[in-house]
Amino acid sequence: MPLSSGTPGSFARSFEVGAPMSDSLKIKRIAIVGGGTAGWMAASLLARSLPGSGCAITVIESPDVGTIGVGEATIPPIIDLLRLLNINEADFVQHTGSTYKLGIKFTDWARLGHTYWHPFGSFGTMINLRPFFHAWHKARADGLSLCFDDYSLCASLGDQHKFRFPDVNAQGPEAGLRYALHFDAGLVAKYLRAYSERLGVCRLERHVLDATRRADGALDELIFSDGSRLASDLFVDCSGFRGVLIEQVLKTGYHDWSAVLPCDRAVAYPCELTTARPPYTQAYARPAGWRWRIPLQHRVGNGYVYSSAHLEDGAALDDLQAAVGKPLADPRLLRFVTGRRRLFWNRNCVALGLASGFIEPLESTSIHLVMSGVYKLLEHFPDLSFAQSNIDSYNAELINEMERIRDFIVMHYSLTERSDTPFWDYCRNMKLPDSLIERIELYRQTGRIRTKAGELFNDLSWFYIFEGMGVRPASYDPLMDVVPSAELREIFDKIAQLTRSAAKQSASHDSQFAARAAAMMAGRIASA
């Protein structure tokens, strides 16, 4: 599979071992500053995981701060989240305008006119206990003519605008299917808010101005614009780029990654849905960045992520409008600096989502990082002593995860052959992190990819980008020579046959939403 499962670890067991904790040390109040997808996702997970603990959870949501994003793309761990929360997936899809996603399709990244896939799910099969991409390298060396879609059912379905659910009882490619969702972030926040409130989460509509601090430097009370206050034991900052608590109050600091991720602006807006909904996110490289297209049930989300050093805001909007047409709502201009907070957990404050840092949305990791932050918070759930070793462990795990994701995103830019604009010329020549250089060189020489346990993107995901960007290893794994070339050809032919057959028997992606679309056309369901 191209992604690690992203499922929570052992936090569900962490509240069942050892002697009962004294009530005087228990966390009894959690304040989440900021709603939106991050805030309500955190509230949902915390409320679901701490039932009967006597812990009061309050979400403070500003009335004048909207949800950032025009259509949100996710990765397969979102499905694991719905199952963990015991949310009916079909109900969630219906109420959030969701469509299904089988991967990301990249256009013009390696060079103009070139397209490649980063699909979910399996790719081929293990051969001689080695990942299939090693056999792929040997087959190419043997002169086999290879079609990528023949070995990735997700890519094959995507190119035919088809979709099917995994069949866990199948023996062929269907068993290795994985999928994610595209959804309306505003509708997701609304859905998770209702879910959280049913579990007892309290919502306050307030604007947070500041916070008081205790003698030891920890946060004590939130100060609202109307003069009222709210005390808490644990604070979760989901206030977006502002970082109201983690930065404005605690002055945590920020590591700037713009030298290797130079895009610092985005313009986004929705437009009408006029064609079939492809079951994948589209990422088109542009002269100073890239453009996304995210199909929803009721509209299409579009955005242009770009470098302000290489393109003016007005020109970016013109480029987007020329590509996708008239907006359904006013375009939104977002300014950001890629990077991360120096600490994700500082004293008694944990930052999630945009408050913790930002890696641009190229591989749809934003929602996952919120989920991962909450999972790890539950695995490190504190008492009122707030043990520093526990906080340090949390920070080390999140920092490592985010830096590995950073390297993966940077690779998309750095491997380009393009030199047709100053932006792409910069990306092709920028100084890379040593950790990324080591991975690239290992692959170039041997075709091997060595990922560490727990990384979000495993060896298969890295292979997809290397292969898509045209990196060809100097040699293949010699263990593949155990398989004679004739036998290897037969294996490849069989896999291709099974993949084509499974795709042929699958229904269109749009058929998943036909009933709802018909009802909307008849006026029985209002478009969100």
Would you write up a description of this structure?
The two termini are 34 Å apart. Helix content is 34%, strand content 19%. Helix 1 (36-49) packs parallel to helix 6 (185-198), helix 1 runs parallel beside helix 9 and helix 9 (366-379) packs antiparallel against helix 10. The chain has a seven-stranded mixed beta sheet with strand order 6-5-16-17-18-15-19. It is globular, with a radius of gyration of 24 Å. Mean pLDDT is 92; it is low at 9-18 and 524-528. It contains 15 helices and 24 strands. By secondary structure, the chain is α+β, with helices and mostly antiparallel strands.
List the helices and strands and how they pair.
Elements: E1 29-33, H1 36-49, E2 56-61, E3 72-73, H2 77-84, H3 89-95, E4 99-101, E5 103-107, E6 115-119, H4 132-141, H5 153-159, E7 162-163, E8 180-183, H6 185-198, E9 202-205, E10 208-213, E11 219-224, E12 229-231, E13 234-237, H7 244-249, E14 254-256, E15 265-271, E16 281-286, E17 289-295, E18 300-306, H8 313-324, E19 332-335, E20 339-341, E21 345-346, E22 349-351, E23 357-358, H9 366-379, H10 388-414, H11 422-429, H12 434-446, H13 459-468, H14 485-504, E24 507-508, H15 514-521
Parallel strand pairs: 1-2, 1-13, 2-9, 5-16, 13-22
Antiparallel strand pairs: 3-8, 4-8, 5-6, 7-24, 10-11, 11-12, 14-20, 15-18, 15-19, 16-17, 17-18, 20-23, 21-22
Quick description:
The chain is built from 15 helices and 24 strands. The chain has 528 residues and is of the alpha+beta class. Strands 6-5-16-17-18-15-19 form a seven-stranded mixed sheet. It has a six-stranded mixed sheet with strand order 9-2-1-13-22-21.
